[in-house]
Amino acid sequence: MLPASPTVLRHSLAAPKLREGGCFGIPSMPHRTFSPARVFAIAGNTFTDLTRQRVFYVVLIFALVLIGSSVFLAQLSFQQEFQILKDVSLGAISIFSSLLAIVATARLIPQEIEDHTVYTILAKPVPRFEYLLGKLAGVLVLIALSTAIMGAMFFALIYWREHVVLEETARQLSNGQREQLDQALRSVRDSAFNADILPGIAIIYIKACLLAALTLFVSTFATTNIFTIVVMVFVYFIGHLQATAREYWLQENGAGLIARVFLAMVALIFPDLQAFNLVDQIVAGVAVPVALFAKTALLGIFYTTIYTLLAIFVFYGKEL
Amino acid sequence: MTDPAVAVRGLTKLFPIPFRREKVVALRDLSLRVEAGEVYGLLGPNGSGKSTTLKIILGLVSPTTGRTEIFGRESSLVESREAVGFLPENPYFPKYLTGRETLCFFGKLCGIRGSWLQKRVDELLDLVDLTNAQDRRLGTYSKGMLQRIGLAQALIHEPRLVVLDEPTAGVDPAGSRQIRDLIVNLQQNGITVLLSSHLLSQVQEVCDRIGILAKGVLVREGRLEDLTAVTNQTEFIVANASPQLTGEIESVINKSGAQLIERRQSTTTLERIFLEATQNEDAGKSTTESK
Q1: What is the pLDDT of residue B280?
Q2: How many domains does chain B have?
Q3: What is this model's ipTM?
Q4: Optimal mutation site among B109, B204, B223, interface A, most CBs of chain A within 10 A
Q5: Is the CB of B190 less than 8 angstroms away from the CB of A26?
Q6: What is the CB neighbour count within 10 angstroms for residue A13?
Q7: Cβ–Cβ < 8 Å for B134, B100
Q8: What are phi and psi of A72, to 5 degrees?
Q9: pTM here?
Q10: Structural domain total, chain A
């Protein structure tokens, strides 16, 4: 064996003081079955990685342009203007947060396997479930950030239009009676912002979380990003149509045991995404009951948890 | 008796072929043992099962049959990886991270925090000679620098065993020499090294023992000097020998009944010429720049 070349090797490791547990100088810590710190480290890394991807900005810019353009779509009465503004904006937030959830999550696992990054991480004392939780958490933070940006744009727009319409109304009715003016202004305010928009956006976020978890599950057995995205596009459309199809089926054929089991299986594989659509009610100005919000949120959390567990189950058996 | 760094017993790995009944045999009844403190080289052509063996040892792939242990702990247990550092073949690290940020990320995964982490990162950057490049993004690193930062991340938690898969693949001779020197350094510090390679000359320089894999079967194993020794031949390397002296030596050999197989002018290695030339070039450049 040749001796180490002194010209190249100028440094040496600190003199080892071998201790039980394998560490030389670092304080030895017992292995923890679950470490939130490891999950945060992976989540932070994933989030930073995703924000460096152009797709994030492209999706976000498209969404903001669509939300902004909704102002020009309605030139009729202020009620119609605010209805269209809410309809288009909430629709845009819903579609683009879902799209971002699918596109951002689909690349995570196959890309890391292709780049061998997954080996360096899982060769450390990191359980596979922590790796997946960290990855998912990174995506969920990204979706939360983008939903918040889109929501802020929407609120700014609605706030601006509300003030413009209030000023116009006040000017038009400046010579009228005080009560008539107050009623008109109240009517404008009621049409513009209502508190139900917030739970509506929260449900949109939960739906995106569900789609991210489902995409993660698909990506654990997919070999390419494209496969995952294609599968998820199908799931997205079937998920929005399945409730209508189910109702039609039950009306036509009745509800036998086999049909119920079949429909339950379909509902598990293709989540009822239409159940997460509260936009119509919000646009129509109908208050979202707390019970409906809680039920929908719990349904979303349940689906997200189930898909995450399935992803972990498949990933544990995956040959890397 | 102390546990070996790596113990592999009766390892077989079959990979199914999609839509077909037969399976690919990646490893067949492999048994090997790497003692603590030695440098073990796993050799073999492409597709011989080297990377699969390493992945099974690291718990990344599950064996069809057989058992692997790291310092007496089952490889499939996450805890067993506390004692292991791994550098995969052609590793990719996020290009937007700097060298320091990369090491900090891997340190956090190993539960190292605060001042311990910063101190350890400083030590490792110094060890792999990347202190001056620590704040540069990895996107600007050369292949050799990436391999060295990869080696540093493998060492972040001060493992007792370091597993290197083709550590010098795609690296130029100077970078390759640095990595080999680091391996020697690790061994001098009592760290066990298990490496796979198909670059035989490099393995010969650093390994104590080697195993040769062919089609998933361990066909040869042993200490390097035992495997490479030619017992009935002897070499002399003589400097400044006159023609008269060489003539006399030859005549003594002939008289004794021994057989002179080859007499040739000594040559240096191409690698040594390359390293000397490029180091002189670098030195010349830095002298010019400093002027």
Answers
A1: 65
A2: 2
A3: 0.82
A4: B109
A5: no
A6: 20
A7: yes
A8: -85, -5
A9: 0.83
A10: 1
